[in-house]
Amino acid sequence: xxxxxxILVCIIAGLGAGFGTGIAxxxxxxxxxxxxxxxLHVDAYEAVGIALASxxxxxxxxxxxxxxxxxxxxxxxxxxxxxxxxxxxxGSLLASLLPSQAMGGFAMFMTLFAGLKFIxxxxxxxxxxxxxxxxxxxxxxxxxxxxxxxxxxxxVGAGGGMLMLLxxxxxxGYELKTAVGTSVFIMTFTAITGASSHFIIGGGITxxxxxxxxxxxxxxxALVTARFAxxxxxxxxxxxxxxxxxxxSIIMIIVNFVNI
Length: 260
Known about the structure:
Elements: H1 2-24, H2 29-39, H3 44-68, H4 74-96, H5 106-120, H6 128-132, H7 135-156, H8 160-171, H9 176-202, H10 208-231, H11 234-259
């Protein structure tokens, strides 16, 4: 029975995380971490490491899918990537100094906010501010915003992907599909850095079967949803993204209360 519960939790957590990654660039930690902590009693710091490790292949395959459909901005994303990576490590170091109870909660409400935003205020095209901004402005914005995103991602392992999507859409003015494609590209390297630092600082993995299952099912979920997102219209994608994120956030809030 214990093995069945472990497999079931990993399947649900992985597929849910894959959906979030493929359609929104959402960090897998927003879904996987609270489920592993609540139902399998995995240490919070290790759970974040497992979630970030699950994010690597899922984000990579999603980025490839978006790139094939020309919905990615690698050139401008590289500057933000460098800033995010450095501060992901800083965030991981800070997180290791805190008790397990201090990690989590932030991403749930950010996901809910984002879900409602895409339902009631869909992003249909790139803003004029993104098209006309200077290279110098773009670099400065990317560095500063990347520092904030990296710190959050490394610190709690969750919220970085969603914050990045909101920043790319609301602050930098990207069209939704390009924002998601750029986000998962950056999150691929952020996840590698975050997972490595978590495992090194935390002393490694205690249950490799949980890690393997989470990686596999997150990859499957991301592959399916990324293909769907690139084939659908902006209107349908906004609606699917909004409804999906809202439902996921509500489930995570409920799971959090179960944990309490």
